[in-house]
């Protein structure tokens, strides 16, 4: 099956990054969000990244214009009917995702693959809301999408080998390096990474070390590019908490309990970089 048009649902940090790399790879992209202001914010994020690439000499102005020209924004879900492949990057809420997948199943062409960028929710459960579970797959990008090379491709219970292979190939065409993962809570990478950030929050909460020293420790002692607390702020503490809750509930294992400090910060509306405050302040 030839993919020409990719539909991206959700124009947030992940959705806009995915739209950008898809357009850079030559695909036409239709990016959809619920409100015009969200669509515009996503398009502005892409434009900023492209302007920076031109400034740095990585792209010519005409190349950047061509990439931008391949992305259109919409609030109408029906506009995705012409997409050959859908990448969903909406909020991590299974009920909302299932409602969306049911609608997409009715709107999209029969052969269209529905891929989720979820950080760890069940692909099988999303697929159960459709009549095409063999065409539902996980395609998990990493933040910031234009920079990070990895895509986890996740096989749900009924995902067909053909769908899986197509998604692996698409990830390569988008300039990424895919790894193959069987469905399990949080997949492979977040299963390791997110509990590490959660543990760093416990170390901070217990007063074992300051935020700066925890992060410096992991950068200097384990060669991480940024420390775990700074990474939590980058990913978003709201996302992180939702991801920890998923693995905690799915496994019932107390080793995955979310750190109360993360819960408290989220309740206070301090989600990290995107709200200007998380473990650190960004002013
Ligand atoms: N979009 C596009 N490009 C970006 C960017 C963004 N949001 N953020 C940074 N970059 C680019 C910068 O433009 C810069 O490129 P140039 O040098 O060509 O200008 C380059 O990345 C390096 O950026 P900086 O010099 O500003 O900062 P840095 O050296 O600290 O690198 C980083 C930034 C690449 C994000 C680095 O800190 C890093 O690798 N951090 C770890 C990221 C990580 O672990 N991500 C996974 C998160 S977990 C996840 O995503 C899964 C999930 O489901 C929760």
Estimate the global geometry from the Cα principal axes.
globular
Task: Tally the beta strands.
Answer: 8
Sheet/helix structural class: alpha/beta
Biggest beta sheet summary: 8 strands, mixed
Approximately how much helix is present in the residues? 40-55%
Secondary-structure element order, as H and E?
A: EHEHHEEHEHEEHEHHHHH
Rg computed from alpha carbons, rounded to a whole number of angstroms = 19 Å
Bound molecules: acetoacetyl-coenzyme A
Give structural notes.
- The chain has 283 residues and is of the alpha/beta class.
- Helix content is 47%, strand content 14%.
- It has an 8-stranded mixed beta sheet, sandwiched between helices.
- The model has no long low-confidence stretch (mean pLDDT 97).
- The structure holds acetoacetyl-coenzyme A (CAA).
- Acetoacetyl-coenzyme A (CAA) is lined by residues 49, 52, 56, 119, 142-144, 146-148, 190, 193, 225-226, 231, 235, 239.
Summarize the structure.
The chain has 283 residues and is α/β, with parallel strands linked by helices. It has eleven helices and eight strands. Residues 49, 52, 56, 119, 142-144, 146-148, 190, 193, 225-226, 231, 235, 239 line the site of acetoacetyl-coenzyme A.
């Amino acid at each position: 099956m030839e993919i020409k048009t990719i539909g991206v649902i959700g124009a947030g940090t992940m959705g806009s990054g995915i739209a950008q790399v898809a357009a850079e790879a030559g695909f036409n992209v239709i990016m959809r969000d619920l409100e015009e202001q969200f669509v515009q914010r996503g398009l502005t994020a892409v434009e900023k990244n492209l302007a920076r690439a031109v400034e740095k000499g990585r792209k010519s102005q005409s190349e950047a214009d061509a990439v931008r020209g391949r992305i259109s924004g919409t609030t109408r879900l029906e506009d995705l009917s012409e997409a050959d492949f859908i990448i969903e990057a909406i909020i991590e809420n299974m009920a909302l995702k299932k409602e969306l997948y049911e609608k997409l199943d009715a709107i999209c062409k029969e052969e269209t693959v529905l891929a989720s960028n979820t950080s760890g929710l069940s692909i099988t459960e999303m697929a159960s809301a459709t009549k095409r579970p063999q065409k539902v797959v996980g395609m998990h990008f990493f933040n910031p999408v234009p920079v990070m090379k990895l895509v986890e491709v996740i096989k749900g219970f009924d995902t067909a080998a053909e769908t899986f292979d197509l998604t692996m190939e698409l990830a390569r065409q988008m300039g990424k390096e895919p790894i193959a993962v069987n469905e399990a809570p949080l997949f492979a990478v977040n299963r390791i990474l997110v509990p590490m950030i959660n543990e760093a929050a416990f170390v901070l909460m217990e007063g074992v070390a300051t935020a700066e020293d925890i992060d410096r420790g992991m950068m200097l002692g384990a060669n991480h590019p940024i420390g775990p607390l700074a990474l939590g702020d980058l990913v978003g503490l709201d996302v992180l908490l939702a991801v920890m809750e998923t693995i905690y509930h799915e496994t019932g294992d107390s080793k995955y309990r979310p750190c109360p400090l993360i819960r408290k910060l989220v309740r206070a509306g301090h989600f990290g970089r995107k709200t200007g405050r998380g473990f650190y302040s960004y002013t």
